[in-house]
Write a structure and sequence with these properties.
414 residues; alpha/beta; Rossmann fold; 2 domains; seven-stranded parallel beta sheet; 15 helices
């Protein structure tokens, strides 16, 4: 089977870590499956996956229409960069992305299946092979206090999503997101497949190596880690309030935050928010976007991993923490609590709207660390059967069924 993977965005963090882990597992466990990954040159370089994919037998190609190194595109891309900066203020920056679906139609020729890890903000192409899309969440359907997408992008996603769900096989990673899909798009709810994910920490780092990475990042242990971004639904403000409440009780906590643009949060917590300062005097340290190896080391060495998010498809950082025997503190939201019932893991559940409750649960982990660590080690044991081999097997079965069905006469297809 020949699979073309089209990733026109190359998301920061969990999105890219998901694609990396899944594709490597597919190649390892199904060597007869030939995979070609098409992506942005910039995101492939950022995630440093070219050599890793090539070593696994995954071909890596770049979208020509999104590649500024192509001579014929250089001048156009420079102009579009300037224009997009202006259009971004108007919420129209996605206009020039929509042509990518035409290139995908050409590139898909000769492949048995097209796989889209993130089918958002792109027109659904009409292909001569079956399509599979991973619909991670539907956060664009909600307003959390500040917009995640511009108004134009919101209407664009809503319009495009209908075509995607009708023409592609939808896969989600939790029962909660399946219920969200059924709520917003009931006509296609029966098509959805649920495949729970494994931890993204697929690199094995020796303790000595991980300690050296932490040292180079100038992070002093102990610390609590929140891998995230600055979107409103990540709920950072109330977490800062909780850290402030702990400091008022003379409980010292260092909070490390990673993700795009998070360097701006470095400083001391106060009643009004973060008072920005140097790392040396900060109790909240923003590292910005870090590499796969760095985030794995940060998780491995954390006292606890926390997420105060209001809406997610699942807790990726939590999975990574459980896989390393690290305690987890997380919001009591449906997708997160689903991990407890499906995987049998343990966590301190928090009310994400209550700073006092968050502070209380952090304090519990700090003052009862042996108990928290014991629960984390039990969670590690519970994850023995939660592997990317199992995830890849489920995906491969879905892919094979679609390809087999597509090869049948139209009259015989369901």
């Amino acid at each position: 089977m020949k699979i073309a993977v089209f990733d026109h965005v190359g998301n920061f963090g969990g999105g890219s870590r998901f694609s990396r882990a899944l594709l490597l597992a597919l190649r390892k466990n199904f060597p007869d499956t030939h995979i070609t990954f098409f992506g942005r040159r910039s995101s492939i370089a950022r995630e440093d996956i070219y050599e890793e994919f090539a070593a696994a037998g995954i071909k890596v190609n770049y979208f020509s229409s999104l590649d500024p190194t192509k001579f014929t595109h250089k001048i156009i891309c420079i102009l579009l960069t300037v224009v997009n900066k202006f259009l971004k203020h108007l919420g129209l920056d996605s206009l020039f992305r929509n042509g990518i679906h035409k290139e995908i139609k050409i590139l898909s020729h000769g492949y048995d299946l097209a796989f889209f890890p993130w089918p958002y903000l792109i027109e659904c192409p009409s292909l001569n092979c079956p399509m599979v899309g991973v619909f991670h969440d539907f956060n664009f359907k909600y307003f959390f206090g500040s917009p995640i997408f511009s108004e134009t992008q919101y209407h664009e996603i809503n319009r495009q999503m209908i075509d995607w769900l009708e023409q592609a096989k939808p896969i989600v990673s939790s029962q909660f997101i399946a219920s969200e899909l059924a709520k917003f798009y009931p006509a296609v709810a029966s098509k959805v497949e649920i495949v729970h994910l494994a931890p993204f920490t697929i690199s094995h780092i020796k303790n000595s190596e991980s300690h050296e990475i932490i040292k180079k990042l100038a992070i002093n242990r102990p610390y609590i880690l929140y891998p995230t971004n600055l979107c409103c639904h990540k709920n950072l403000g109330i977490l800062f309030r909780a850290i402030f409440l702990l400091r008022q009780e003379e409980i010292k906590v260092t909070l490390v935050i990673t993700g795009p643009n998070t360097k701006s949060v470095t400083g001391m917590v106060s009643a009004n928010g973060i008072e920005r300062s140097t790392t040396e005097y900060a109790d909240v340290i923003g590292l910005g976007y870090v590499s796969n190896l760095q985030i794995d080391a940060l998780i491995q060495n954390a006292t606890a991993v926390i997420s105060t998010s209001l809406y997610e498809a699942g807790n990726g950082p939590g999975l990574d923490a459980w896989s390393r025997g690290v305690p987890v503190i997380m919001s009591d939201i449906p997708a997160f609590s689903e991990h407890l019932s499906v995987l049998g893991v343990k966590a301190q559940l928090i009310d994400p709207y209550d700073a006092k409750d968050i502070a209380k649960k952090i304090q519990f982990v700090l003052t009862n660390y042996d108990q928290a660590k014991e629960g984390a080690l039990q969670s590690l044991e519970s994850l023995n059967n939660c592997t990317w081999e199992k995830v890849a097997t489920q995906y491969h079965k879905i892919f094979c069924n679609l390809v087999q069905k597509y090869q049948q006469p139209i009259s015989q297809r369901d």
